Amino acid sequence: MINHSKILMAFAALLIFASGMAINEALTKSDIETAAEVLGIDFLDDEEIELALPGLERQRETLLTLGQTPINNGLSPTLIFNPVLRRDQLPASKTVSAPAAPPTDPTVTKLNSQIVNTAKASGEWQWLTVEQLAYAVKERMVTSRELTEFYIARLKKHNLTLHCVITMTEERALAQADILDAELAAGKYRGPLHGIPYGAKDLLAAKGYPTTWGAEPYREQTIDMDASVIEQLDEAGAVLIAKLSMGALAWGDVWYGEMTRNPWDTEKGSSGSSAGSASAVSAGLVPFAIGTETLGSIVSPSTVCGTTGLRRTCGGVSRNGAMALSWSMDKIGAITRYAADAGLVLAAIANYDPRDAHAIEAGFQYEWPTTRVKPGTRIGYYKSRMERDYPFHAQDSVVLETLRELGYELVPIELPEEPEIRFILSVEAAAAFEALTRSNKDDELTRQVANAWPNAFRTAHFVPAVAYVQASRLRRQLMEDVDKVLTEANVDVYVNPSWHSNSLFITNMTGHPSITVPNGMNEEGTPTSITFTGELFGEQALVDVAAAYQAATQWDDLHPSGY
Fold it and tell me: Which residue in 186, 329, 374, 464 is a FRET match for 492, CA 20 to 30 A apart?
């Protein structure tokens, strides 16, 4: 038998203490009736309400105490999300590896040499790939110090327009570049990222520098550590030159300093929340950047800025030292201009780290992609969504034609309809920033509209605990349904509209990886994109397909003017 009074306590207590009544006033039958009406509870009679009142009083006291208990943003809950349904979804190897050096294929080497020599003669390095820059550094055609100074100067110049930088890390960068140059002179080469500058979204801690999360209440915040991703990139030889802008607390492209601009049209924002990462890469201000995604924060800015965004399988990159928004949905990835570069960066940051309670020990053994397509390779396409009339349908249709011409076998698939579980994100985010809401410091955030964090945090308090658990159960069912679709279709990768599809929401809930690449221009002169989604830990297949597509098209080679 169900005890209705206990259910009510779980469902209604969060509403009660937020209802505006004085805390020291005793709860009344009318209070319960109001709470029940708001929460859609229709199973209580007068006798049951009277029976529940004493327990609800005690529950309110407990919740008030809980709400006032300081909890560090980085402390994970004991409820751990794991995207893995079966052991065979994990990679066979738990190790992570990357190429020891740039490609040695004679044709590739000759091409890289020609491109690098041209850049060296002109002094303009901004449009070279990470692969080409790696060749230049390894062959002593440019030093890390020279590259670092070059990109720092570009960031300082163009940030005046793009507002993509929150903090320069110049002193750290130059010191590291000198160390890396000395190592190379002594015969020590760390790999293709040796000496390559980059930027990181400002939710990643960097010792000695502010970590602002793009939000006014945290503008002066310093975290005395390097995030795991920063540590791993240090080890790979990459050089952090800037903390890049992000929408406040990872929503949108508006932060306390300004709105981050799209290099293709500076009247428009760069989208978010990895706003500065995509903007800076698009304008050639950094060779690559680190972004994060909870629900579109790599896909969306990569789309409007014309960059390549690789989102790792949930749990595949350590979030230690990163701002927590949703413990079950946050993911870290690479933003580059080319798919091959994104895979290379991922190989540097995919190492298992037990300091992240959600980390999964899964390897990623990266190989430089080839444009050669194995006959019979199958790619799914989200048929019903790609055949609808939607913006960018024309560009997406050409993608399918290109894939067929490359030799891929296209297989129609249909994803399940998504359940109504979006509030999982807002509930976890509200918990992550409970102290901000209760202190009313959320009023300091720049965006104060219905569709922004302050309001979302407040309304999330009205979600019953039981509903959150039920949503988690439906999420598990969604994971099983998606797995069934991909297994029965026998595809490693499927293609779908970047925005105009429920795939973005579904796969952020299931934890699947994706790569987003430019696939055209819209009528307004800004880029469009297509997204490839892979099996869990199937990032190599994603990079291979995306690189083959980019080799057959010109969209990744276009750059905004003026940079």
Answer: 329
pLDDT at 49: 87
Q: 8 pLDDT exceeds 70?
A: no
Burial class (CB in 10 A: 0-12, 13-18, 19+), 490: exposed
Same domain? 295 vs 156: yes
User: Do 349 and 259 lie in a common domain?
Assistant: yes
Instruction: Please check the confidence at residue 124 and state whether its pLDDT lies above 50.
Output: yes
- What is the rounded distance in angstroms from the CA atom of residue 184 to the CA atom of residue 140? 9
Q: Are residues 34 and 134 in the same domain?
A: no
Of 42, 69, 96, which residue is a domain's last?
Answer: 69
Cα dist from 277 to 124, 201, 242, 256, 291, whole Å: 20, 6, 10, 16, 6
Among positive and negative, which fits the CA dihedral 138, 142, 143, 147?
A: negative
Beta bridge partner(s), residue 412: 381
Domain membership flag for residue 247: yes
Buried b (16+ CB within 10 A) or exposed e, 379-394: bbbbeebbeeeeebee
Q: Which residues pair with 478 in a beta bridge?
A: none
Residues 198 and 337 in one domain: yes
Query: CA–CA separation, 473 vs 97, rounded Å?
Result: 35
Residue 325: its pLDDT value, please? 98
Beta strands in 3-63 (DSSP E): none
How many CA atoms within 13 Å lie on the side-chain side of 88? 2
- Supply the pLDDT for residue 370: 86
List, edge to edge, every strand of the sheet that includes 165-168: 165-168, 239-244, 197-201, 289-293, 331-336, 308-311, 514-521, 527-534, 493-497, 378-382, 409-413
- Residue 439 domain-assigned (yes or no): no
Number of domains comprising the chain: 2
* DSSP 8-state code for residue 288: -
Length reported for the chain = 563
Looking at residue 10, what is its pLDDT? 40
Tens digit of each residue's pLDDT (9 = 90 or more) over 55-73 = 888 888 888 888 889 999 9
* Residue bearing tokens 């050096």: 101
Q: Check if the beta carbon of residue 545 is closer than 8 Å to that of residue 532.
A: yes
Give SS3 for 381: strand
Do residues 250 and 207 touch, judged by C-beta distance below 8 A?
no
Backbone angles phi, psi at 329, to 5 degrees: -130, -20
Question: What is the distance between the alpha carbons of residues 250 and 272, in angstroms, rounded to a whole number?
Answer: 7
| CA 495 to chain CA centroid, nearest Å | 19
- How far apart are alpha carbons 123 and 119 in whole angstroms? 6
List the one residue out of 249, 240, 237, 248 whose CA is nearest residue 170: 240
Average pLDDT over residues 435-449: 94
What count of other Cβ atoms lies within 10 Å of the Cβ of residue 24? 5
Task: Report the C-alpha gap between 56 and 8 in whole angstroms.
Answer: 8
- Containing structural domain, residue 370: 104-417+473-557
Q: Which residues contact 2 (CB under 8 A, 6 or more apart)?
A: none
Residues 163 and 59 grouped into a single domain = no
pLDDT band at residue 21, thresholds of 50, 70 and 90?
A: very low
* Structural domain contains residue 204: yes
